[in-house]
Every structure is written in C-alpha cells, then in structure tokens.
Design brief:
By secondary structure, the protein is an all-alpha fold. Helices cover about 90% and strands about 0% of the residues. It is built from two helices and no strands. The model has no long low-confidence stretch (mean pLDDT about 90).
C-alpha cells in the first residue's frame, strides 16, 4: 500500500505516465483551439448579420 501511495504521490514517477499526460494535454489544447475558432467564426457571422439587418 505504501508503494502505491508513493507512486501516485510522486511527481517524477513513471515516464509512460508522464508521456500519457503530455498527450492528453496536447489533445485538450487542440480541442480548445477548435472551440476558439468556432466561437470566433460565430461572432464574425453574428456581427455581419446584425450589420445587414440594421441597415434595412
């Protein structure tokens, strides 16, 4: 039990675990970038529609 506790408490434990964490971080960053682009496109589209509708 102490061995497992030390393993999970350690910051520099397992290279495979650290690599998996790095991969998950990269996937999360990519999903945030996609979400950011989608929000930006939506805002531009919304601004264009509001401008067109206000002119009428």
């Amino acid at each position: 039990m102490e061995k497992e506790k030390a393993y999970f408490a350690s910051e520099e434990s397992d290279p495979e675990r650290l690599e998996a964490q790095k991969q998950r971080d990269q996937e999360f960053i990519q999903s945030l970038k996609k979400l950011g682009v989608a929000v930006l496109v939506f805002l531009v589209f919304y601004a264009i529609l509001r401008t067109i509708l206000n002119l009428w």
